[in-house]
């Protein structure tokens, strides 16, 4: 079996050595080169043709984000960011993901050798996922903006309706690409995105700046309001509950489900129990099977469910699993997802790929 070939780009000789040790200890991958800066890396990419890059941000001669932008325009390939600047929900993280990086690992600031060794399985897992990801060329002038869809005046949406979204790898950009099209009077939205603690608040703040709806990290106990989206914090499961006539959020630090907390399955199961046919479920790009069982429960409870199609996914794992168990009603390209959601909620007709 061919090993995943990795090029490590970092200005620290120690980090290059430690990453090489971590990667080479895996049976299915190997480091084929290490570069101290992007200019050296550029030549090594041409000669070695690696499957995946690990990339630091803060480097001499050209910073990692500038290099990433050039790379994704000229020679798109899988990139995992490994940098201290990606810690604590830094805007740098989301800029890297926006430019096309598949995922990120926060480099420890203290005791680097021990810290990186502790992150070894995470680094290896994200390199594996990156090696299978669908990569797209970054188009010049690509901007994080979109035209808001309008709910037709003669169509009203019940305040009992909800939109429930789950995603993993590639999901930060996919969620943005859906939410930016929602009008301020859309139904309340609950979101579970696989993301570490410390990043979800910055993710919510970024979406809040970009979208016409209000986006916040859930604190638990909020009343779910139209025109608002609530993102599961990185330390807790997010659940939907009912309090009288109102929907409210609830947080739980119960054990991870499918190795994740927050888990998409936990959110979807709660929506099945509390919202039933009033929910529209959406499963977006991501590795693994989290969300499939919960979405099937939503389907059995009367919800209408949509999955992102393979062509527009960074990783098709989670949507594929939901489709395979019969949990979905439509498979939709990402660029059409918002319009199909609102079409279902308003009862208007959209052409769709049906299951």
TrEMBL record:
Principal location listed in the UniProt entry: cytoplasm
InterPro entries: CheB-like, CheB_C, CheY-like_superfamily, Sig_transdc_resp-reg_Me-estase, Sig_transdc_resp-reg_receiver
Keywords from the UniProt entry: Chemotaxis, Cytoplasm, Hydrolase, Phosphoprotein
A GO CC term assigned to this protein in UniProt: cytoplasm
All residue ranges annotated as the CheB-type methylesterase domain in the record: 156-348
Keyword DNA repair: no
Maturation and modification: Phosphorylated by CheA. Phosphorylation of the N-terminal regulatory domain activates the methylesterase activity.
Domain Response regulatory, residue spans: 5-122
Root EC class: hydrolase
Stored PROSITE patterns: CHEB (PS50122), RESPONSE_REGULATORY (PS50110)
Domain of life: Bacteria
GO molecular function: phosphorelay response regulator activity; protein-glutamate methylesterase activity; protein-glutamine glutaminase activity
Active site residues of this protein: 168, 194, 290
Residues modified to 4-aspartylphosphate: 56
Subcellular location: Cytoplasm
Catalytic activity as recorded in UniProt: L-glutaminyl-[protein] + H2O = L-glutamyl-[protein] + NH4(+); [protein]-L-glutamate 5-O-methyl ester + H2O = L-glutamyl-[protein] + methanol + H(+)
PANTHER family: PROTEIN-GLUTAMATE METHYLESTERASE/PROTEIN-GLUTAMINE GLUTAMINASE, PROTEIN-GLUTAMATE METHYLESTERASE_PROTEIN-GLUTAMINE GLUTAMINASE
Function of the molecule: Involved in chemotaxis. Part of a chemotaxis signal transduction system that modulates chemotaxis in response to various stimuli. Catalyzes the demethylation of specific methylglutamate residues introduced into the chemoreceptors (methyl-accepting chemotaxis proteins or MCP) by CheR. Also mediates the irreversible deamidation of specific glutamine residues to glutamic acid.
Record remark on domains: Contains a C-terminal catalytic domain, and an N-terminal region which modulates catalytic activity.
Designated name of the protein: Protein-glutamate methylesterase/protein-glutamine glutaminase
The gene coding this protein: cheB
